[in-house]
Amino acid sequence: MEQLIHYVWKHKLFPLRPLSTTHGEAIEVIDPGLHNRNAGPDFFNAKVKIGNTLWVGNVEIHEKASDWYVHGHQKDRAYDNVVLHVCGIIDMEVRTSKGEALPQMQLDIPDNITQNYQELISIDHYPPCYKIIPSLPRLVVHSWMSALQTERLEHKTQTIYQRVKQCDGSWEKALFITLARNYGFGINGDAFELWATHIPLQHVAHHRDNLFQIEAIFMGQAGLLELESIPERYQALALNEGYFAKLRNEYLYLAHKFSMKPMDFKRWRFLRLRPQNFPHIRISQLANLYFSRKAELSQLLECKTIKEAEAALQTHVTPYWETHYGFGSTTDKNTKRLSTHSLDLLIINTLIPALFAYGRHKMDDQLCDRAFDFLELLPAENNHIVKMWSECGLSVQNAGDSQSLIQLKKEYCDKKECLRCRIGYEYLKTSTPKGQQP
Fold first, then answer.
1. Which of 31, 292, 301, 416 is geometrically suited to a Cys-Cys bond with 47, CB 3.0 to 4.6 A?
2. Considering the entire predicted model, what is its pTM?
3. Residue 392 Cα distances to 106, 138, 142, 379, angstroms
């Protein structure tokens, strides 16, 4: 409940009656202050008129006044400049470390806000705010979607920065890991990221002009050149074909040369996976892409259009995989080029975050602007999250919109952060919505 009191204070959603201290002095909240999410008082630099005196200072909020002592604020000088103690229940007087009594105000949360909040956190329908979405002003929706889009890019930027740090400052290696993770297309994302960390690019670079050796290292480090990784019904066929043994022998030589150790092949998931998404296919495509040198950081940064980005990321499998989905598992011949849908996802999740992150790193606004431009030019993603929001009445025009809605679900709805959501704000301040079916 304290979190809700914070929210009511921050947005000045006060009851429709005069505010006063516990001693009957009139209170006028001119500025609730800046919300502090770190240590110290809850709101900094608030402007509050108590009686005839204007106070500028900090405000502390608790569910009960006695929490002041529970948290030890009476011993902390950082709380001596609190000008008002706001609580849901005033159960005692409180004093600062100097022994001075603090003015206190009991903040009663309006009934409609309490009821709406309870609905948001307990309603069965998902998302819980679906009832008001069709009636939201376009300006509110547009500004919130724009903020969410930037927030999602910022989140991805921080992830890339962490990878760069883990890679001892190598942006090229961090990009490789990011690209590899997105080649998992969800179900094998974690496995591909782990695999990419097992690829010693500094050693692979010595064999950059030999596609077979690149594929041997890539497959070997994935653990897919272990005979046990092949289903028993295909093992004999794989051995008879010879390609598996040839790759394995080359990998064993290179593994000894560079002291490489493979990851556990059991990390790969195949259940309910379409054959074109099998790790063997994706790794062969990555080997070809690495061999082509098209997807290096410098090349991707030069992409000015979506077509150039698609050309840079487009790839296909090596000859053996044109007729196989796994070792010994044959199929009709197909170069297995990336589909337009797959390319769009790679641009959204790899190229665009890389542009934005590197632009921030180099303080290059053009790269950051290009990231946003690409999001507006690409079609919206087609997944269950986007469909859910579309059914609720939110318009999805491009990839920027779909990324915004993914951010909304993952960082707000899933975490029940309705009090930080602008749609939640609109929901809370309304009169209690009448029930309706989604």
1. 31
2. 0.84
3. 38, 14, 16, 20
